[in-house]
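Thread: "does anyone have the structure for this chain?"

Original post by V.I.:
We have the sequence but no experimental structure in hand. Need at least a predicted one for the grant figures.
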Amino acid sequence: AGFLKESDRLVVLWTPSYFTRLWCAYELVSWVNLGKVRAKPIVFMPVALTSFVGTWTLSYFLFTVVRSFADVLIDKKSLTAIAFISLLVLFPCAVFIGQNHMRDLAALQAQLRVFTVRK
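Reply from O.Q.:
Generated one for you, tokens below.
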């Protein structure tokens, strides 16, 4: 709790199992008891969000690289085929990760509804 006392903000890297670990619950209770929750709210950042953002970043990067070299190395038909295949592979992955992220957000809301701090 000494480290939290000197902190200005609490960012929680949340997973669905976060509240099952005692030290995580202790950290939240300590933050609330220090009265810091009134000054700055706790920020919950779902860890799975990085997979979603990473997938879209990778797909944009690959598209940019292919497009920049397309005129030199690849004809237009091949470029269309590569783009279509990439879309078939990356889009379902992004949808799957996005659905898991939405499920995690629902779980976070449910966990926060039942989390209480008692003195």
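V.I.: this helps a lot. The chain has a mean pLDDT of 81.
O.Q.: and The first helix runs from residue 2 to 5.
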